[in-house]
Amino acid sequence: MKAIILLSGGLDSTIAAELMDAQGIELLALNFKTPFCLCDRKGSGSCGNYAYKVAIQLGIEFRLINAADDFLEVLKKPKYGYGSNMNPCIDCRILFFRKSKELMRGVGALFIITGEVLGQRPMSQFKRQMDIIEKEAGLEGLVVRPLSAKLLPPTIPEKLGWINREKLLDITGRSRKRQIALAKEFGINDYPCAAGGCLLTDAGFARKVKDLITHDELNLSNIQLLKSGRYFRFSKETKLVVGRNEKENKSLAMLAREGDFVFRPLHIQGPLGIGRGFFDPNLINLSCKIVARYSDRDGNNSAEISYGRIPEAESSLITSPLGEDELERFRV
Fold first, then answer.
1. Cβ of 271: how many Cβ atoms within 10 Å?
2. Where are the domains of the chain?
3. Distance CA 185, CA 214 (A)
4. Taking the mean position of all CA atoms in its chain, how far away is CA 104?
5. Of 114, 161, 152, residue with least CA distance to 17
6. What is the end-to-end Cα distance of the chain in Å, rounded?
7. What is the pLDDT along the chain (332 residues), one digit of tens a residue?
8. Ordered strands of the 26-33 beta sheet
């Protein structure tokens, strides 16, 4: 008996995999790549890497599907709306379930397994939302949630005896005490992204994404740019991202593309700024002032800032930093 398990690499899905493996179910682990995994932002690896590590430990096949483009289309206008910020949780789950269903026939899988816990996440893990997601994905009765199965109606695999319902669990809510106890029982010691997470639930980041959607600029290139620094919007066509540290400066340098403006301080330490869109002399001057604001001027009232459009030659100007009140007019 074969099933697809949606494996995040977090604690819940890892325990779900252990429970199903113990019942002799042949598992294929599936993980979806989007630009918004919180593990990536923390710099501790990617969600896909964690899932792959768990799959290796369990000795099960692993597949990673890049769902970034499809996810961005969902993000622009989700049928079931957003959560507290820009997180389209219900539509996200529907997308992943649909893609899982597409894979089922090709790999000989008969049902889907997830690590969802009833009541753990308010937007997508209550009974009503779970039913909506299954129906929209065409998987009614074919999604097994081992951690909360005894609190939910029996699924088709349970009714047909493919899996033993009595060996499934009745976990509910946000507490993770039982999962942590089970982790010890199964010998699971390393789950660095235990709670999972999505950047779209972060209020600050969500504002930036909303800005891209508002200006019809939601694409992977712009998303990667705004993940790498302070974000300023000058006009419908023009924005500036300024690094906050050496790591972000390096990231911005790699993300810069032909036609972008590059701003950097000369002779002193400071951030790299990447401008994208139409820059007239006034906006060039404004960008230089912002970069000067975050540069190490060592008490000086001005700084020399280099600027230029890739791949053209760079120029420079000496400018005072932008004041805090004026800076806030442009910060997203």
1. 25
2. 2-186, 228-330
3. 49
4. 25
5. 114
6. 51
7. 999 999 988 899 999 999 999 999 999 999 999 999 876 554 445 567 888 988 998 899 999 999 999 999 999 999 999 998 999 999 999 999 999 999 999 999 999 999 999 998 877 889 999 999 999 999 999 999 999 999 999 999 999 999 999 999 999 998 989 999 999 998 887 765 544 578 999 999 999 999 999 999 999 999 999 999 999 999 999 999 999 999 999 999 999 999 999 999 999 999 999 999 999 999 999 999 999 999 999 989 999 999 999 999 999 999 999 999 999 999 99
8. 61-66, 26-33, 2-6, 111-113, 143-144
What distance lies between CA 294 and its chain's CA centroid?
28
| pTM assigned to the model | 0.90
Nearest to 179 by CA among 163, 164, 195: 195
Which residue type occupies 160?
L
Chain centroid, CA 218 distance in Å: 14
- Plot region of 91 (φ>0 → left; ψ -120 to 50 → alpha; else → beta): alpha
Homologous superfamily, domain 2-186: HUPs (3.40.50.620)
Q: Give φ, ψ of 224 to 5 degrees.
A: -60, -35
Number of residues that this document lists for the chain: 332
State both tokens at 185.
Answer: 């029982």
- Encoded amino acid at 289, one letter: K
**Are 103 and 109 in contact, with CB atoms under 8 Å apart?**
yes
Helix (H, G, I), strand (E, B) or coil at 129: helix
Give all strands (DSSP E) within the chain, no chain letters: 2-6, 26-33, 61-66, 111-113, 143-144, 230-233, 239-242, 261-265, 273-276, 303-309, 315-319
Encoded tokens for 297: 């001027």
